[in-house]
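hey so i finally got around to running both of the ones u sent me last week. sorry it took forever, my laptop kept dying halfway thru and i had to restart like 3 times lol. anyway pasting them below in the order u listed, first the sequence line then the structure token line for each. didnt double check formatting much so if smth looks off just lmk and ill redo it

first one:
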Amino acid sequence: MTETFRSPRDYVRRAAELGANRVALRSGDRATTYGELAAQSVALAASLRDAGVGPGVQVAHAFPNSVAFAVWYSAIWEAGGIVVPLAPPSFAPETARLIADSDAAFLALPDGASLPSGVDALPTSVAGWHGALFRVAGAAAPIDTRPWTEDGYAVRHFSSGSTGRAKHMFKSEANLAFSLGILREAAALDETEVFLGALPFHTPYGVRALHAAFDLGAAVTILPRFLPGSALSAARRDRTTVFLASPAMIDSLAGCRLEDGDEAAFRTLKLCISSGAMLRREACEAFRARFGVPVRTWYATSETMGIAIDFEDGFEDGRVGTLMPGVEVGIFDAAGAPLPAGAVGQIAIRSDGCSRSYVNDPVASAKVFRDGWVFPGDRGYLDSSGRLFVVGRDDVINVGGYKVDPLEVERVVREALPVGEVIVLAGTRADLPAVKVVVEADPARVTPAMVVAACRARLSPYKVPAEVEVRARIERTASGKIVRTSLDGR
């Protein structure tokens, strides 16, 4: 461990040393100080160590947004373990598989939660802080890693799983420290911040509010789940300054019914970030008109963490802003040759926030992690000023030898019709490849024929969808991403 390295495992204790009476967490009317959070975490960590949690030991952590989430998370780190965040009960069908795939030796559950179906585990003597620890049968030996060092593994995250089976990746302590540091620097954040913790904490983006606050010694207002009214009420009460949101949250807040005084709910907000999916121009502009606060786009992936942030005013399709400090982006053609400014190609990222590979998945790793770069599958370009633009996915659709960029079709539909989400994917017509479009909209206002007509008016014939579905609601993951496996029409 270098002399200057500050491990994220120490953030809570360090914040308590600098200000034990400073508020760390707010949940409803209850406030938890850093002194209390540190004491609770240290006490629970002692019990976890007695049960066998230590360096290289993975602990599946399945708590909802709550003070208990933070206490157990911090305690696992304090004990030297690796956190494996899972969606809280109700358990998704794949929970047992995720636990087995992660080789977690223990499972931490909130009070009253039953073991998920298919998980063979026995309770330990550790119970407290609104949760209990279970020992998982048949778990693998601890991983060879050294906690409190730059290379020590701290978290095992999953990709969203929106395109199929989730992929696993470790985040080292240096990965986390770097990502938090560049956010702090880029946004000029300090210990006075109040974060609105509205995203699910078990997701890589959602837990960033906790990590960033603990790094700063700042406060987090915890929302058990996002509802527009509760978010506005909490922001007014606690004088929120930082809101890490999903595009769906921005959309909801931009159009929800307001109570008296709600227009001023974000009057203290100095940073509102949207990440995880495409933000609609209409939602961005409506949010700013309603609350007087601009929404900043943050480009990040599970594999790379923060990449770019857009502090410019005025919405521009595809613009994700300037690169964050210490992040390098390259644009490459299909043969792997670098491209000049303005040329569209595969986006690749290199930084100290990047994971090194997927766990036990050499085929997927070889595709994404190449020659020191991470290729997340997006296409884009850097302009002459170094601003990054994302113009589509690298997974273009092949229709009879013609290439169709899904983003081009998506934009046509968005601009022509009153839709929410637009998903463009490969379909068939008479058993031949074709374009398929699934839109989230009011079926009384948008029909498949209208979607086809809009595309036919502005696109080449081979880009016009042969299949169109209009759904009142499209299934999403806990972090707000579309579950693409739900779009096959079955």
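and the second one:
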Amino acid sequence: MKHRKIIRCFGVLEIVLLLTLLSGALSELNADTVESIPLHRSPVSCGVPSGTPWEQNYILREVPNALGTILLFTGGDGRLNLNVIEGPNGDTSSSQFGINKSANFLVRSRHLFASFGFNVAVVDAAPDFLNCQNGLGGWRLSPQHLQDIKDVIGNLRGKFPSKPVWVMGTSMGSISAAQAATIPKDIPGVPLGFYHLDGLVLTSSVTASDNSGAETVLMVNLEAIRIPTLIVSHGQDTCLATPPNDAWKIRSRLSSAPVRDIRILWGGFAPLSNECDALSYHGFFGIEPVAAAQISFWIKNHLTP
């Protein structure tokens, strides 16, 4: 009986923490805006629903006197559906924007990174990818997705000139982040370094694939990355796609990165989701403030002078 009581009490603490994290983000909704920028490519074969603006959307949380901007990529199918807001009767309207309530580690922790002095941008999938059956699944390594990322980087460079831009992805989002980090500094026809990022953080990176040929971060040309890189894993992550020991595989491939560090974190609450979803060790459930602090301090120590 005593054992059952302990388990039940611990479950209540988990729920309280989750509600606290979500309320931390939701209580500052006025700090979040949804930015919409034109896309500079043709739609992929999934197409765009009639009446949907051909725009890239992202959440922006701006802070005064920011040290720089962190560009975040969610995991899974990459969908945030920022162009849909639920009405009072459950109806939806694509003509208004709603702030996403995703439980994803980076999305739900965006206010934590902002608290350390960074502007935070969270990228949604483009409208044609939103219309694909698996969202960004199978498209994270595509030139179309990379062009969308460049559009967001360019928009952030315009908003915050001279401020560094870092990129961070979690789980499947680590593929998008790593691919973005391969953008070279010298691109003909654009100012030097305009799309080039200043640093990379990979969390719970997808490194293992089944026979379906699903994308992994190891399919990225990691040898082309020439910016400081931090690899963060949870030592108790049991998701088959993100084995924590593969952090060293990633590190060994980052042969051109000036810094390539690894952080293995431990602890947290017992999972409330399956092992590959957000509310588990895979999603740093219960240690979000610790993870955000370690990542933020590491970024601060490697900011471009």
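quick thing i noticed on the 2nd:
Residues 153 and 195 are 6 Å apart (CA to CA).
anyway thats it, ttyl
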